[in-house]
Amino acid sequence: MAGTAPCDYTPSLGSHQDPESKASSFRGQLAPVPYDLTLSLGARQDLDPSIPTSLWAEGGFLGCLTLFGGFVGSFATMGQVTSFGTYQAWYAEHQLSAYSPSAISWIGGLQLWVMMFSGGIIGRLFDAYGPTPLLASGTVIYTLSLMMTSLASRYYEFMIAQGFLLGLGAGLVYNPCIAASTARFRHFAGTSSGIVLGGSGAGGAVFPLLLQRLLSTVGFAWAVRIQGFLALACCIIATLTISSPVPKNKNTPWIDTKSFRDTKYMLVCLAYALICLGLFIPSTYIVQYAQAQGLSQNIGFDLLSIMNAANTIGRIVPGWFADKLGRFNLMVPSALLAGVSCIALWLFAHDTATLAAFAVIYGLFAGATMGLDVAVTAQISPPENFGTRVGMSYAFMSIPSLIGSPIGGAIYASQHGGYSGMIVFAAIFNILGFVFLMAVKLMINRNIFVIV
Fold first, then answer.
1. Residue 278 has pLDDT above 60, yes or no
2. Residues 6+ apart with CB under 8 A from 254
3. Which of 75, 145, 161, 295 ranks highest by number of CB atoms within 10 Å?
4. How far is CA 328 from the centre of its chain?
5. What DSSP string describes 259-307?
6. How many Å apart are CA 225 and CA 222, to the nearest integer?
7. Where can this protein be found (predicted)?
8. How far apart (Å, rounded) are the C-alpha atoms in residues 181 and 256?
9. DSSP tag of 9
């Protein structure tokens, strides 16, 4: 997930500038940090009329075409990955019925780990060669992985095809989608990344329903193949429409060692890692949880689609507000409320209505948390190594994403089929992530009523 789009790099706390002078010093970049909330939003345009007022004004035709391709590519890749709960429930009753939920969830965890860990490498390749070679190779690998999954019957075959290869192919498509959109939109980074990431939520809403219908009509093999053909079409569209204005640079370092000495950046990465330990547990286990409450598997699939549909809104709408009100100001409470919703709703949900309410609320706030990570990283990063820093942050998230759902499954097994421990685990780590994000926000400016 790379890109070298200029973005706000928060200066040290020792530089004391009033909000107006600070706003005028970041011409053509992201929302100034900090920016007094008591000032009208229109004041920003008065201070610098060169700041673009719309996505079209900033990105033009190629920028909007890149957003479209990014949405479609994210729909096909991350949308499939976040729908693993559908496969989890199916495997538990069919091909992998001899395995525990924790063991099955390692397949989905491996997908996320490969996709995120590869972000650092893919980011460097993006800087050197641009998006097209990555998208083309990712399209081939991703489609091949789904076709191989349709033929799999043993645990190790699913781990190779749906775990490793699908994660690699998805990473080669998904990361350039994010990087290219961020490179084309500097001021509207939150909005543009929210639109692209919204594709994953839309895919997460469509794929479970599609798979549910196909499994009952054409069987597992052809259900997965049909999804593979759909993904192929989407990835081809992404390859043909996504472009980057950033000059190719083969001298970009693979790892930015200076970032390890940046306290704010490291705390943000720690927050991301903590959040990822619990973030994907609800989407992985909500179908099985619904069945445990006596609801049908179809209702469980519907709940997963509802959660992912809400996730779409949570990624797009907060991104627009974040460009106006501050990226930290939106991401910090979103992480908190995602965790609180697990305890306040999921822990006590035993009927369809309560589970649907949880799916909507968690989907909204989890979507906002995931949708703003790139914009938040951009805000605390210097422009010249933004792409490398984003890739490194995804590498930090990869291990927690790999082990989070299996840990949840192990807690479930230790309670002999009880879900309360798993739910509390997911909530705690979302809330811990909130604590560290809040710490960084206060490091930037101790006044909580400023745009950060």
1. yes
2. 120, 121, 124, 388
3. 75
4. 16
5. GGG-HHHHHHHHHHHHHHHHHTHHHHHHHHHHHHTT--HHHHHHHHHHH
6. 5
7. Membrane
8. 22
9. B
Compute φ and ψ for 35, nearest 5 degrees. Answer: -140, 125
Q: Measured in whole angstroms, how far is the alpha carbon of residue 347 from the centre of its chain?
A: 24
- The SS3 call for residue 451 is strand
Query: Could you give the residue ranges of the DSSP H alpha helices within 372-419?
Result: 373-379, 386-414
DSSP state for residue 380 in the 8-state scheme: B
The residue that leads in pLDDT, 197 or 424, is: 424
Residue 250 token pair: 């083969």
Q: What is the model's pLDDT at position 355?
A: 96
pTM for the whole thing? 0.77
pLDDT per residue as tens digits for the range 332-346: 999 999 999 999 999
Question: In terms of Cα–Cα distance, which of 383, 445, 65, 24 is closest to 237?
Answer: 65
**Residue 59 tokens, joined:** 């990105």
Contact between 109 and 117 under an 8 Å Cβ cutoff? The reply is: no
- Per the CB < 8 A criterion, the answer to whether 252 and 387 are in contact is yes
Residues 6 or more apart whose Cβ sits within 8 Å of residue 385: 252, 253, 256, 258, 259
Domains and CATH numbers, the chain: 19-451 (1.20.1250.20)
Of the candidates 424, 101, 37, 438, the residue with the CA atom closest to the CA atom of residue 271: 438
Q: Which residue has the tokens 């893919």?
A: 122
**SS3 label, residue 180:** helix
Please check whether residue 329 is in contact with residue 291, taking contact to mean a CB–CB distance below 8 angstroms.
Answer: no
Q: How many CA atoms lie within 13 A of 250 on its CB side?
A: 1
Residues present in the chain in total: 452
